[in-house]
From TrEMBL:
Organism: Hyphomonas pacifica
Lineage: Bacteria, Pseudomonadati, Pseudomonadota, Alphaproteobacteria, Hyphomonadales
The name this protein goes by in its record: ATPase AAA
GO molecular function: ATP binding; ATP hydrolysis activity
Assigned protein family: Belongs to the MoxR family.
CDD domains per the UniProt record, alphabetical: AAA (cd00009)
Classification via InterPro entries: ATPase_AAA-3, CbbQ/NirQ/NorQ/GpvN, ChlI/MoxR_AAA_lid, P-loop_NTPase
Amino acid sequence: MADTDQVDDAIVAEAEAAAEVLAQVKAEIAKAVFGQERVVELALAAILAGGHALLIGAPGLAKTRLVESMGTALGLSNQRIQFTPDLMPSDIIGSEVLDESPTGQRSFRFLKGPIFTQLLMADEINRASPRTQSALLQAMQERHVTVAGVRHDLPLPFHVLATQNPIEQEGTYPLPEAQLDRFLLKVDVNYPDLDTERRILIETTSGADTIVRPALDASRLASLQSLVRRMPVGEKIVAAILSLVRDARPEQTSDERVRRLVDWGPSPRAGQALMLAARSRALLRGRLAPSIEDVEALAEPCLGHRMAMRYDPTGDAPSLADLINDLARKAG
């Protein structure tokens, strides 16, 4: 019993220290990104959970600025790739070149691509061909790339924040459902409110440079990710997550709307994502354990890209987001 108490005390002390440093991270990011507190929180939650996030929003909503400032505040190296239809897998992961020594001996040398970074922004990922998308998504899952039969490990931690433009669909290749499932969270980036937009207009056109400073480093981030997985989760929270995920599947639900409107439901990976993201959100908010409120807040970001609705000719069906949020309230 004494050993258990010591472990619990150690986790509490770690969580308190983590809450302080994460508050500093958010404060540094807020210097460069205005009024997107929810987006910043969800992106940080995905990284603390060890996953990747898909940001969906119109151009000009500070998605690139978010990734740059987040990389700096977290003390991670970061790169940006602008995806285009002619982008090849070798443009991302790298390629081999033939070198010749002064003695005339020839050998292949691997030139690393931009994926060899700790925080990668995959801008407009749906503009790349499926072949290029799969190269990135395979690296996201396996944390290494293989070129000419040789394995090259990616730097750790490794996280991807990918973006999609929901407005223009011409010339794009939508991500298949199996690849969408690789993203821990889907984050909708909305337009700023009036006061935030006023601040953006004034502060970003004044000529003053905003300097974001590191509040973490890679090793400290890795310890925070370890802490997230050791945080306790109450039985009530586990039951709520199970109830939500299973009730969102047409084959297992007791909800008539899900049976009638949902084409396919979330996989067990959705429940895993929700468990980890709820812990991350609790830690970001200075709490030791997740609550029902965390589950409700993260239900749509965790499940929204892992489900699909059937066409409803009546036009009376709720949106997928509304349906998920309603199921989350019932589960709690």
